[in-house]
Each structure stands twice: as structure tokens, then as C-alpha cells.
Amino acid sequence: MVSEKTLHGTILYGPELEVIEGYIVIKNGIITEVAEEKTSSGNIIAPCFVNAHTHIGDSVIKDPILGKCVDSYVERDLSSLVQPPHGLKHRVLERTPYSELVESMKHSVMDMIQTGTCAFSDFREGGLTGILALHEALRVYDIECRMFGRPKSIHASDDELRIEVENILTDADGLGMSGANDMDIQVLENIRDVAKRKRKTFAIHAGENSRSDVEKALSLSPDILIHLTQADNADLKKVADEGIPVVICPRSNFITGVGMAPVRDMLKAGIDVAVGTDNVMLNSVNMFSEMELLSKVFGLEDRQVFIMCTLMGAPVLGLENAGPIIERNKAKVMILNGNSSNLAGIKNPINSIVRRGRPDDILSVII
After folding, report:
1. Most buried in the list 27, 118, 136, 238, measured by CB within 10 Å?
2. Per the database record, which ranges form the Amidohydrolase-related domain (predicted)?
3. What is the pLDDT of residues 14-45, one digit of tens each?
């Protein structure tokens, strides 16, 4: 049976987010027509968010103590929170029952959908079991996910490690490694080689709280780099020359106290930059919050911010026929109420969605 719907309103059209008044036609989940036409609708039809880096497994430990409090100031310790294998996150994940882990991830997935996200990528800890838990959490939701697993047995023999990685890659889209300082570089190279042979993605954190692991991460020829908060211009030139996309996590970097990623320099170097909310234990999955921060604190132009948080995630994650609102693309759109108490009277929808948009402005999400 053919499913068809027509949406009227102000449309953020195409790769440049051209603001037009008109309608879009969706047949069986595909955009078949976009046309300009006068309309009385106050709705805004926009591309959905792509949350390009998450850890939804740690949904089981939301908002932990971040460090020692001294004179009303919290001395934050990123390593004690998330560094494998003994960081707080990993200790909690190790003792969390499987059913509780799955249930907590379901809540985060639903929260993503409700806040306008149509696709996300997740770095899943816990080896093959972690990947299978994510599959189970996603079973009833129509949201695209790129799953990047990692082995549990990092001190196993080469053959045992290879077998574990191969098993993970049977059910995952690739590997998402913690960082080049967290494992022996030869082990990482072996893991990387398995991913490349399987034609799967190899992604890795780099330069989050120190640039000491950036060069080693680059030596692995990764497909995606996460953070690069401490990268200098020489690092960024190498990243740009190798055509490696970067996913930044602004709120996460602030709450862990590692600073601000050099986003302006990344863009100036020609790097493709997408955005993620990172660990659910530290931040909600609300991409509106990332946009407001990038606009008001980083000082980035609003259109660029919106592109990074929506359109750019699709090519970075390898999502096919996704991203901009154009004919023949998948219909992954959010419909916002331009007459809400928050958005009523706005003159520039892109500026306003980026600076003041909220989940409660969303009328519907089509994914």
C-alpha cells in the first residue's frame, strides 16, 4: 500500500538550507516533490538532527559526581570518569545487569527521537554483548544507528583478540576505540587491520584532554576522529590532508573541563565537522543544546551550526540518501511550530532554531 503525505510550511531546503515557503510530498518514506507555494501554515519543516557521537550505554549512571569539590569549585577528573578499564563508567557498566542496560538505552533512544534526532552513532563498550544489547534496545524504534563496538579482552592473545573483533564486526558497523594512549599501539594496529579487511569503519577518540595521542591516532588512518579538543594547527592540517572527518562534542568538553575544540580552525582547514552529545551520563541527547552553545559561546555562524548538527552527520556516518530536504532523499524531517510561544514572531528561522529552539517546539518527527 502506498503511503503519501504532504507537508506545508517554511522549508529549510537543500544542502544550503535555502528558506522557502511551500510544501513537500513524501511517498513511502521518500521525498518525491518539493515546491514553492504560498501557504498559511506557520510550521517550519527542517532536516532532523544526526547525533554523530554518543555513548548511550552509560545511561545507567546519569550525572555522577564529577570530581572533588574545593571552595565551591569542582576539580574535574576525566580519566576517573571514563578511561578504560577502571574509570567509573566502565566499573558501573561491568556490574549492570543486561536487562537494566537495555532498558536504560531504550529511554535514551526515545529521548533522541522526541528531541528531533533521526540517526546517531554509538561507541558501544562491552564487546559483542554490548553490541547485541544495543540491537535489542533499537528493536522497536525507527531510528538509524551506526554501531561502533570495541573488544573487551584487550590483553588477550593476538588470535583471541582477532576472533573477538571479527565477531563484533559481524553485528556492528565498525570499531569505536577509546584512544591511542589507552592501548598498546600494536594492538590497535591489529584491531584496525581487522576492521579494514572487513571494510568496516575504524573510529577513535583523539586529543580530548591532551594532544599527546593525536599523532598516534593519525598513524592508524582512522575513518573518523572524535574530539580533537587539544589539536593544534599542524594536527588539523594533517587531518584535513588525509580527509578525515571530525566529530566534536562541545557540552561534553565543557563538563569534563577539557576546554573548547578549535572548531573555527577545523572549518578553515576544510575539515568536515559533525556534532555529538557524547556520554549520556554527562549530557542529555538534546542537540538543540549543542546548537545554542556553538552559536553563543563558540561564536559560529548559525547556518554553519545547523549544517554541522543535521546535514553533516549523514556523510560522516555513511548514511545513504539522507541529510538535506531534497527530492529522492529519505524523509527525515522535524516539523516545528513557528507559532509556539518560543518561536512566534521570528524573522529568520535558521537563526532562531539554532539560538532558541527547544524540543517542545517540535510538533512531529518523521524518520
Report:
1. 118
2. 44-360
3. 999 999 999 999 999 999 999 999 999 999 99
Fold of the domain built from segment(s) 49-317 = TIM Barrel (3.20.20)
How many angstroms separate the CA atoms of 44 and 365, rounded?
Answer: 12
State how far the Cα of 308 lies from the Cα of 289, in Å rounded to an integer: 13
Rounded distance between C-alpha atoms, residue 24 and residue 31, angstroms: 7
Residue 306 in contact with residue 350, Cβ under 8 Å?
yes
Percent of the chain topping pLDDT 70: 100
Backbone angles phi, psi at 206, to 5 degrees: -155, 140
4-48+321-366: in CATH 2.30.40.10: yes
* CB proximity list for 256: less than 8 A, separation 6 or greater: 66, 76, 78, 81, 82, 208, 209, 282
* Residue 53 neighbours by CB under 8 Å, 6+ apart: 121, 123, 226, 247, 249, 274, 276, 277, 278
Give Cβ neighbours of residue 294 (< 8 Å, ≥ 6 apart).
Answer: 250, 263, 275, 300, 305, 308, 309, 354
Which amino acid does the sequence have at 104? Answer: S
What does the pLDDT average to over 233-252? Answer: 99
**How many Cβ atoms sit within 10 Å of the Cβ of residue 35?**
11
pLDDT band at 233 (very low <50, low <70, confident <90, very high): very high
Name the strands in the sheet holding 30-36, side by side, starting at the edge strand that comes first in the sequence: 30-36, 18-27, 4-13, 43-47, 333-337, 362-366
pLDDT band at 153 (very low <50, low <70, confident <90, very high): confident
SS3 352: helix
Alpha-carbon Rg for the chain, nearest whole angstrom, is: 20
- DSSP characters for 258-318? -----HHHHHHHT--EEE--EETTTS-S-HHHHHHHHHHTS---HHHHHHHHTTTHHHHHT
Q: How far, CA to CA in Å, does 235 sit from each of 14, 68, 247?
A: 32, 33, 15
- Residue 297's CB is within 10 A of a number of other CB atoms, namely 12
Tens-digit pLDDT profile for residues 66-99: 988 999 999 888 888 888 888 888 899 999 999 9
Which residue shows C-alpha cell 593544534? 232
Is the entire prediction scored with pTM above 0.90?
A: yes
Cβ-contact 94, 140 below 8 angstroms: no
How many other C-beta atoms lie within 10 A of the C-beta of residue 62?
A: 15
